[in-house]
Amino acid sequence: MLWTSKLSDMRNDKIINDGAQADIGKNTHSANMVDGENINQKNISGQEELPHRKPVFLLLRIVLIFICSILVLIASVLFILYVVPVLMERSTKNKSELSDNKDLKKDTEYKKQIGLINKDILRLSVKYNAYTSGQSYIVVNTTENRFYLYTNKKLIREGFCSTGSLTMLKTDRGDKVYVFKTPKGKRSIHGKITNPSWNRPDWSFIEEGLPIPPKNSPERYESGVLGNYAMSIGDGYLIHGTIYKRFLGMPVTHGCVRLNDEDLEAVYNTLNIGSKVYIF
Predict the structure, then answer these.
(1) How far is Cα 79 from Cα 86, in angstroms, rounded to an integer?
(2) How does the average pLDDT of the chain come out, rounded?
(3) What is the reported pLDDT for 59?
(4) Cα 176 from Cα 169, distance rounded (Å)
């Protein structure tokens, strides 16, 4: 009987211990769930705070960029107002000191070089005056495809033009080669005409793959493609208008100088027979 009662007590103790451990496990699980919910709530609240912080960071960045820009602008202005004049003053001072060197002026080689320089200046001045007389003249820059119109050595008009394309054309037999370039150098106006017609040369037919007509054939004459005015500068080259105004400023011609309508009229009315044309 005694050992039976002890055995029942031990069983009761085990049941009690198992129940207590189950309760402890439940409590631990519930505690973990509470902690997890707290962590999730913190993460959610942190994620909610991030979008609110982005405008603040963006505003600070804009303010910093603005401040840096202002500082750079102030530094540039101060450099121009104070540093540049000092540098210029020093350079002019050095030049004046060099020119006022009395020992250098007494040097024979120095005198010789100064004499040669003065002769070159005089020669170039005479040449410049001969090229730029009181008459009107035009200067054509084939590199930039621009023209400059002068009267009494004053620039009165400038603008875009089109010059030679520097392309090459060969006949099918290869017996003739054409290079479409604008002649460079000093030229003059040989003739002036209004409402010109184009007398198509041989290469215009070769270029289109057409048979070449006789010299005086009506097929060679085409109206309305040279504009309202044309000026001859010799060797078959003209200053004339164009129907391809979108190409002005580009080297696309077969050697002539093309201008738009307004510029062509101004050049035609300004230049006379014999007026100089400088092409470079």
Answers:
(1) 10
(2) 81
(3) 84
(4) 8
Which residue has better confidence, 269 or 59? 269
Residue 37 in domain:
no
Q: How far apart are the first and last CA of the chain?
A: 136
Task: Answer whether 242's CB lies under 8 Å from 162's CB.
Answer: yes
Of 186, 162, 147, which is closest to residue 257 (Cα–Cα)? 162
**What single letter denotes the amino acid at residue 134?**
G
Half-sphere exposure of 157 (CA within 13 A, CB side): 19
Q: Which residue has the tokens 């505003």?
A: 59
Residue 35 domain flag:
no
How many structural domains comprise the chain? 3
242 burial via Cβ count (<10 Å: 0-12, 13-18, 19+): buried
Phi, psi of 198 (to 5 degrees): -85, 120
Indicate the pLDDT class of residue 2, thresholds 50, 70 and 90: very low
Residue 34 lies in a domain: no
Q: What is the mean pLDDT of residues 180-186?
A: 96
CATH code at 177?
A: 2.40.440.10
Alpha-carbon distance of 202 to 211, in angstroms, equals 9
CA-CA distance, 128 to 132, in Å (whole number)? 6
Rounded to an integer, the average pLDDT of 106-122 is 85
Q: Are residues 77 and 145 in the same domain?
A: no
Global model pTM greater than 0.70: no
